[in-house]
Amino acid sequence: MMSEGGRGMDERALLLLGILRSHSQHGYQIHDFIEKNLSRVTDMKKPTAYMLLDRLHRAGYVSETVEQEGNRPPRKVYAITPAGEAAFADLLRENLAQTGPLRQASDVGLMFLDYLAPAEAVACLERRLAMLAAEIAAITASQVQHPGCGVNLALERHHALLLADRDWLARTIARLRP
Amino acid sequence: MMSEGGRGMDERALLLLGILRSHSQHGYQIHDFIEKNLSRVTDMKKPTAYMLLDRLHRAGYVSETVEQEGNRPPRKVYAITPAGEAAFADLLRENLAQTGPLRQASDVGLMFLDYLAPAEAVACLERRLAMLAAEIAAITASQVQHPGCGVNLALERHHALLLADRDWLARTIARLRP
DNA sequence: TTTTCCATGTAACTCGTTACATGATTTC
DNA sequence: GAAATCATGTAACGAGTTACATGGAAAA
To answer: Does residue A74 lie within 7 Å of nucleic acid chain D, judged by its CB?
Structure first.
């Protein structure tokens, strides 16, 4: 009755809980990991991570322990609780069973493509094609970085979608070319 | 120095200007059109549309004329100005040449797929597959509604992406099945 | 010695959404 | 006579971002 909440938060909570499930960490560490390894999957910012960890703590999904090494800044180590494990499982099942809307900013322009002269339209779309090719290369490269890990599933899916996008674009350009 | 603005606004401004380019309309009419015909491309809400139209007006991209028929509520008819046409062209070129990030909530779950027993994971993904199939059918149906119009380009692209997503999912399920 | 890294957070802001207010008018 | 439609907006809220504050430690 009080849940529901945006898909956004659920997705981020799932991410944090999933990361904490492998081992307990403090916020800085978590955000660092996300930025360095998961940049293609999410782009959570630092204050957001801290805020969500605090919220997960207040919800009883993670425990908070303050540690300090020598004179370094004290850090809050978060560990997932049994309640957190349960929440994680629920969120995971829900997330896996659902497919997002797939709405993209780039769709709007396509509707008005006729406004441009064919030659110019083709020029724009070719720049886009180059961007797509670059992204595909980047994904292929980063797949090597995550061997046998679940992250590869997400990257694989992205790869498949990007290939489809590229192929569609190439066909469309060919159709438009005078 | 004061521009930049999120991609979000640009995309919506492009949409509104593009709609007004075909003919002048008032806000209610525009939002109605979006809701009825463009629900797959965007989901702009009514207050957002009014707010943006007001902003476009203050920026000089559209003119505002108050009309009233009998005792009905007065309405503000917006028409695109020469400055608006120029802005539209710029936004369109920029939008066409760019490809969005393609980040989806559903990617997070895939990273943690190993947590579930294979049988359960497959069950979740099969529900997702069914959703995808339904969306594909819906898109195919709505393509018929927009004959020869630019909207079909966006729908076509969606269709291609959804097919790729479905095929990838089907392959993944087959690989997971024990 | 200045920059970067570690580690956490707050404050102000933007964008967009929901829910609500208004008031006439057509439809059931 | 109740409900939906027409037409515009405001107010409150939520999520997330940017920019900033703090302060010691390690590296350049």
So the answer is: no
Asked whether the beta carbons of A25 and A78 are under 8 A apart, the reply is yes
Chain A residues in contact with B91 (beta carbon < 8 A): 109
CA distance B144 to A116: 24
- Asked whether strand C has any atom less than 7 Å from the CB of A63, the reply is no
Token output for A37: 């390894």
pLDDT number for residue B163: 98
Going by pLDDT thresholds of 50, 70 and 90, the confidence category of residue B8 is low
pLDDT of residue B103: 86
Angle between helices A151-176 and A118-145 (to 10 degrees): 160
Contacts of B109 in chain A (CB under 8 A): 14, 92, 95-96
CB contact under 8 A, A95 and B88: no
Nearest to B45 by CA among B57, B65, B28: B28
Strand C nucleotides within 7 Å of a protein CB: 6-11, 14-19, 23-25
DSSP lists the bridge partners of residue A67 as A75
What is the three-class DSSP state of A56? helix
Apex CA B102: angle with CA B123 and CA B53, to 5°? 120
A18 with B111: Cβ contact below 8 A: yes
CA–CA distance, B143 with B159 (Å, rounded to integer): 9
Cβ atoms of B14 and A112 closer than 8 Å: yes
Q: Is the CB of A101 under 7 A from strand D?
A: no
pLDDT value at A109 more than 90: yes
Identify the residue whose Cα has the smallest distance to the C1' of C26.
B72
* B123-150 mean pLDDT: 94
pLDDT of residue B44: 96
Q: How far is CA A70 from CA A30, A73, A74, A170, B16, in A?
A: 22, 9, 9, 59, 59
* Measured CA distances, A166 to A130, B14, B137 (Å): 9, 23, 22
